[in-house]
Amino acid sequence: MPPHTPTPDDNTNTSTGASTGAGASALVDFAVDLTPQEVLRRAQVMEALGPDWNPLEVLQGEEAAYDLLYSGLDTQQQHLYNNLVTTGVLPPRRD
Description:
Number of helices: 3
Structural class: mainly alpha
Strand content: under 5%
Order of helices and strands: HHH
Shape: flat
């Protein structure tokens, strides 16, 4: 039984039906320059953060929050925490 749709010739572009010729590539180079949009996005993020944003202070606050989160663990919790660090699920903490 013959197929319902004939097999396209190797030299025919399947989307347009046009012949691509011998050795022609069916791939098309596609590039989009996102630089202007990325510059605008970054400017908007910095504007939203405001002039008083201090990345070092933010990181120190996060470290303090982690210290508080992992302090006062009972024996079972500490064992579970150590297992998670050993397996790489959680990053090791500095004392």
